[in-house]
Amino acid sequence: MDTNHPPGTLYIVATPLGNLEDMTFRAVRILQEVDLIAAEDTRYSKRLLNHYGIETGMISCHEHNEDQKALQLIEALKAGKNIALISDAGTPLISDPGYSLVKAVAAQNLPIIPVPGCNAAIAGLSVAGLPTDSFLFCGFPPKKQQKRGQFLEALRSEKATLIFYESPKRICALIQQAISTLGDRNACLAREITKLHEEYIRSPLSEILSSLELRVQVKGECVLFVQGAGPSSQMTVEQLERLILSKQNENKSTADLAREISEAGHLPKKQVYDAILKLRNTIP
């Protein structure tokens, strides 16, 4: 690197989740002033740039070419060029591409500056109605059922509010498995944050699942917030009975079912065992 020529800066620029009015003044200025914009999808980002009259040139930088493009971008930074990294929506690197680039740039001791703005996890958490003093961003859970179950099991004792990103195609499967593993905790499903059909469902997981299952199709990106473990997240009697009834077709013994539910719901095993017997005696 030429010591007589200062290096450029890599700006990590947050962009709107959907509503273009959520762009900050500073983000617009940075995107206008940098020499190059590295975008996850240049075709998608063109709409944003056109809206604000930004004519800066773009280069694609996504999960499939990030390692290769990092070398090119580092050379540009060393030559004194300023570069902005943007993703399709929200803050880059947060379940979006950018980590490999930032890691490589940081290893070269080149300047990296955040330009804060939208983030679906934080925006949704602010209105979820769940504890915010401690939270854990879990990103996208594994797609396969077995691995997703292991993933959730590792979070069962976590006391912080849990935040998951999920596609509309898998959100019901995630919630069903969360109920089985974590218990029927209080939760909030945020869908299409800042967009036209924005929606928030605040209720126990079982009620959110029931609401979604009544729909022909779930649309839009989803963020699921689940209350952490602890006394305040234990199931009510009604929630416990719904969970037991949902598992009646699993052909498990009373003892095995009681153990599974007591561990997942942080309830005394005898309480669950007695509730199972009571329900089985009342079902024809």
Short structural summary:
This protein is an alpha/beta fold and 284 residues long. The chain is built from eleven helices and ten strands.
Any overview of this molecule?
Helices cover 40% and strands 17% of the residues. By secondary structure, it is an alpha/beta fold. The chain has 3 domains: 10-118, 3-Layer(aba) Sandwich (Cobalt-precorrin-4 Transmethylase, domain 1), CATH 3.40.1010; 121-229, Tetrapyrrole methylase, C-terminal domain (Methyltransferase, Cobalt-precorrin-4 Transmethylase, Domain 2), CATH 3.30.950; 237-282. The strands form 2 sheets. Strands 3-2-4-1-5 form a 5-stranded parallel β-sheet, sandwiched between helices. A 5-stranded mixed β-sheet has the order 6-7-10-8-9. Strand 2, helix 2 and strand 3 form a beta-alpha-beta unit. The protein is elongated and about 80 Å long. 35% of the residues are buried. The model has no long low-confidence stretch (mean pLDDT 91).
